[in-house]
Queue: 2 jobs
Job 1
Amino acid sequence: MEPFQRYRDVVDDFEAFIDACERSLSMAVRVNTLKATPEQVERAFDEAGIGYERADWHPHVVRVETDTPGVTWPSIHGWVHGQEEVSAIPASVLAPEPGDRVLDACAAPGSKATQLAAEMQDEGTLVANDNNLGRLSALRFNCERLGVTNVAVTNRDARNFSLKPFAAEDEHEGPQFDRVLVDAPCSCEGTIRKNPDALDGWSEDHVAGIAGVQKGILRRAIQVTRDGGHVVYSTCTFAPEENEAVLDHVLQKEDCRLVDYDLALEHDDGLTGWRDTEFDPQVAKAKRVYPHQNDTGGFFTAKLEVSA
Amino acid sequence: MSENDGQRFDRLPATAADREVDGRATREAVVDWWENRFGIPAETFDDHTFWEKGAGKIWIFAGDAPSPIAIEGLGMTFLRTRQEHWKPTTDAVQRFGRLATKNVFELTDEQAERFVDGQDQEIPYDGDWGYVIAAHEIAGDREPIGVGLYVYGELKSTVPKGRQRSV
């Protein structure tokens, strides 16, 4: 927990924050509405004698009283997907609609991609990209298990994601996206309750290195989004260098702005400064979820609109 | 006739008259197969396109894309067509098998648990031999689990290793 000492002055009730980070996390699943309703899932868990509690902030997130939700019938049928509760935030904020053209820029292993497909009701096109070929098999496995048919899987570095494969015969590039999710690779500080070794190897140099990649990915995401379209940027880390500083950089470089959104979880606003650096005041529209606020993992989410 | 290119997806020809790759299944044949084998109405797939990547590996995609397209995945693997007997995938049966009206094996709880664990079992059945949909009742409805092969009085589980579970 040593790396978290630098957040002493930005987190309210720092002791409660540290206490929560030291507790393990209860299991949660997301109901896959392409295959089942929450009521069907609850009835199936009743039949299996497994206790559960629906999250009050999201109609499809269910906390389950089993360590192995993957060996239950609802999981075998693809009715549910084991997913940390806060990981359901970014797809809900992006809120794609049926028929949209959507990109998940860093999609493996597919928890958020499959949630996006469910929100789209499997209509429209979801391009699920990841630069790691090894992780693409997990992405495809999860998409197929959950019954997704509107996904096109690509293997590119998201910093130079190409629209060319989707170009019609007489076009140079394929169409831009209505919505893009950048759930960026990050230092994963907020997963400490699930992965106790998440902070092994942590250093400010490592954070700085990842932040450079994140800036490149978010800039490219904005470039491939149509005017008026939306981009959600999220990480599972607390480091301002990977969160508000990335937004601040992209606000300067690309034609976009941060927008408000609703989130029915207790949270803090984005930080408008860190150490000696002040950020564009718009970054306050981002939301930070700390583990002690809702007894979840940690998360950061911002919503951007691409300007006309 | 050209050969199948395993590095890209090609949209299936609508009918045999449109075929450019030797031996490639047609959209018409694929849709007919699901209707004949399982009674799933052809119009179920009106909003989907069908693609081949890798010889005989048919994928189902919601909507359309330029053909050919060289990417890693396009929709869901749906059907294997290069053997004499066509074989549906577990994922396709789970997604579309609720609509089946024939060649469905309704399993008891114990049979369903053995099936999803990958075990073969002897079960009397008076329907056709061949690939069947294994299903069971859950939450008040019949729900498909996966693909079985019924031969010589035995239901063989073809649930892939990665999908097998000991419930």
Note: The interface with chain B takes residues 34-36, 40-41, 43-44, 47, 70-73, 75-78, 122-125, 128, 136, 139-141, 143-145, 147-155, 165-169, 174 of chain A (CB under 8 Å).
Job 2
Amino acid sequence: MNNTLLTITISLLFGIGTFLMLRRDIIKVIIGLSVLSHAVNLLIVSTGIFDGTKVPIITGSGHEGEASGIIFNDNLADGVLAPVVSASTHVDFVDPLVQALVLTAIVISLATTAFILILAYRIYEEYGTTDIRELRRLWG
Amino acid sequence: MIAEMSHLPIILIAVPILMAALMLFLRSNEGVQKGLNITVSFVMMALSFVLLWQVWNGGIQVYEVGEWGKYGIILVADLLSSGMVVLSSLVSFLALLYSLDYIEGKSLNSSYHSLFNLLVAGLNGTFLTGDIFNMFVFFEILLLSSCALVVANEKGGVTKSSDKMEATFKYLVLNMIGSIVMLIAVASLYATVGTLNMADLSVKISAMSAAGTLPWHIFAIALLFIVVFGNKAAIFPMHYWLPDVHPTAPSPISAMLSGVMIKVGAYGMLRVFFLIFRDALFLFQPIIIFLALATIIIGAVSAVGQKDVKRLLAYSSVSQIGYVFLGIGFGTVHALAAALVFLVNHAIAKSMLFLTSGGIIHHAGTRDMTKMGGMIKTTPVMSVAFLIGAMSIAGLPPMGGFIAKFVLFDAGLLAEYYIPIAIALFFAVFTLFYMFRAWLLMFWGEIRDVEKYGEYSSHKSSYMITIPIITLAALAFIFGIYAEPLIALSQAIAEQLIDPQPYIDAVMTRVVR
């Protein structure tokens, strides 16, 4: 993670999210949570990015195929299932796994945000306000 | 048949998810829905016992989902995982049986069955997975389904709808922050070590530690994991959501939350700290012991002054989970075994107490203990069950709680942690006080002022409600007088935890295609 601009963006998003979470309005708290979760998503993506790397798409049968030691084609007789990268090969792709992780995290945060928005609406119906300081009936 | 048995770990996760979808389609036919769900839940319980038996006899089972080897998601059933699955399946079967008659018909019919199945899937998945990111996903399934279950309506409607909304909002916001923290921890761990498989992480971090190149931020990541699992288990600084959420949930869900859900935190702690961070553990043991003691003190002191029966039980849960974490903090084989014995006994006794409190609330029409009294004549079954539970939680022989506290304090003394044991022992006396105060207030003395608070309900509790309570009470009693099998199992689990080499071997020696 050698990208200064990205780092500053992530830290700003964390700051904005935390600030909004400390507001008194329920809706602002929820927006804060979503900003925070997007900050985390950016953090995850940024862990896979290194300077001078390309997108993780392996193109064609490969201009660097045989020479680099990357095997693109299945060879079932020898029990080889492509793609196989030998340990000594230098590969300058970004890590594709973190993008799969982020996809999962986004879907999960969508579900939780949908739920908490409905909950906020029901709270507004029950209490007649979205002020978080009014939510103290359980303290009795 | 034998060949199918190797698919048990995935069956235990996939069938509840499929059932959740099926239950939505069966909404028009209430009888089929109930019958099918109970049958499947019972079969799941039987299968979880089979899984434990297989692991006990045949060693650790590894199931590769999609046959990607250690690069894909794997499910690992070692003794700890399969033991926890047995515990959660048992409690969830009994809670489901109880809720058929307890939850309001419309709520039960429309969404309760699906959500309950998702909760079971989340629990089994969390216990069985061998992949740290997959654990996060199952945590979220657990969180969302439990949130939706907390707002389900019970018959009679003692708890106001607005209370449920408020409690769920607190629970959801805190746990969303917890899951964000977990994502940060997992992402940093992946960026540092380059794998998400727990056994692989353990090997690589050990290798780094042996070479003396362990980066300092591994310790920061481990602290983040303490926050995550502490939030799930409600230990001291993150405990304040629990006394709001557990009382407002319907009783069978309170039993699930207090009996199994907070144990997920303890399980995660055992799994992550004794497998992944075992070389950094020495640094965190004092922190865990301190937090555990603070939890014990806060929970016990707060429980003494409660008037609401379920709130008292919730504060008692906070206090008791502290003892489990105390055992984890000591970190010796005996202490871990003791923590597991304590965990099982608390799960059984506390689920039983919450189920019983549901019956009591139904009978008295209120949750306020000062508005009850003399109920031993009108509900003898509930009073005996509550007495057994209170004795078990307070640690009186011959109940299971006595054995649990005895082995825990014994292990602490063997490991020479004298001051923590002294504090824990002192606050165990508080447990005795608040549990018996509750029992005396509710069941002993005069029958309440009928003109002021009205008659007790003459409605008899059905077998659906009494059978789970009696089963769990019998278990609490059996674990007290015949504790040897449980202690032997916990000892074996603790030995596997202290020396995770068999776990690592089982995962890593797979053929990677």
Note: The mean pLDDT of chain A is 79.
